Amino acid sequence: MLTDYRNESYTKALTDVVNTYKPEILLLGATTLGRDLAGAVATTLLTGLTADCTELDVDSDNSLAATRPTFGGSLLCTIYTLNFRPQMATVRPRVMPMPERVQKPIGRVVEHQLGMVEADIVTKVLAFVPDRDKATSNLAYADIVVAGGLGLGSLENFQLVRQLASVLGAEYGCSRPLVQKGWVSSDRQIGQTGKTIRPKLYIAAGISGAIQHRVGVDGADMIVAINTDKNAPIFDFAHLALVTDAVRLLPALTEAFRKRLSPHTRDRIAS
Length: 271
Ligand SMILES: Cc1cc2nc3c(=O)[nH]c(=O)nc-3n(C[C@H](O)[C@H](O)[C@H](O)COP(=O)(O)OP(=O)(O)OC[C@H]3O[C@@H](n4cnc5c(N)ncnc54)[C@H](O)[C@@H]3O)c2cc1C
Prior knowledge:
Helix 1 crosses helix 2 and helix 3 (155-168) runs parallel beside helix 6 (246-260). The chain folds into two domains: 7-94 and 111-120, 3-Layer(aba) Sandwich (Rossmann fold), CATH 3.40.50; 139-270, 3-Layer(aba) Sandwich (Rossmann fold), CATH 3.40.50. A hairpin with a 5-residue loop joins strand 3 (55-58) and strand 4 (64-70). It has helices at residues 7-21, 32-45, 155-168, 176-180, 211-217, 246-260, 263-270, and strands spanning 25-29, 49-53, 55-58, 64-70, 75-79, 87-91, 144-148, 171-174, 201-205, 222-227, 240-243. Helix content is 29%, strand content 20%. The model has no long low-confidence stretch (mean pLDDT 91). The chain is built from seven helices and eleven strands. The strands form three sheets. A five-stranded parallel β-sheet has the order 8-7-9-10-11. The longest helix is centred in the first third of the chain and has 15 residues, at 7-21. By secondary structure, the chain is α/β, with parallel strands linked by helices.
């Protein structure tokens, strides 16, 4: 019954588990599935849900302090669920640093028998039809991301981003205006209303670095920005600033990496 995701069966199961064990706090990933499920479970349990959190803390009285961007990313607000339990939150994938591995974890796995019967679930999975768009992105989990912005000037010039990404074994992404222009699909948008990324290397070409873009890339280990304007906001948080024309630099970088990296090395960098 839980083999394929169905909102109804998963909501019933999770609600049952929560009602049995009565946790103070319930966390889910802000993935496509997690967002769908969390809203339904919170509604069924008549409790509050703070969605898309970027930071979590627990106060001394077990209150969950759930922090998320608001007002277009210009403010961070911390939300408490005061009168209802459990306190629910969804957290964007990869917004938090990976914790150190604990050799002997203290968490407990509880096996719980569900009393559901298939006949009670009205939604049925008839077939699984895979997405035919093979080019869908894996941005959130990529170690290297190359992205382009409006500064590239045309869809043709955006191909320079894709070529560099291909040579580096990287994923490619973009700022929001390129999605709005229809140059790039929305699953490759990086930022507050797009993907949050946490790569080892992020190369941003022709991107100004607006706050809504910045919140999506702040977790990158190394940010290299290419921009003609030395006062562009992206240089306030980039680790390496290249003040130059991206349309000229990108092909030169691609060529240089192509010469120096064998396919084997590229695989190693990206893994
Ligand atoms: C509610 C809301 C949500 C948003 N969510 C997102 C989001 O998720 N992601 C996102 O990206 N944006 C988002 N935005 C939009 C954001 O505010 C910016 O408008 C957007 O990020 C700007 O995109 P850009 O940097 O590509 O373009 P621009 O701001 O136009 O910047 C282009 C840059 O390219 C430089 N440039 C020009 N020519 C060249 C060249 N030849 N070589 C190198 N550099 C050059 C310019 O100096 C400039 O800095 C959101 C906005 C709102 C209001």
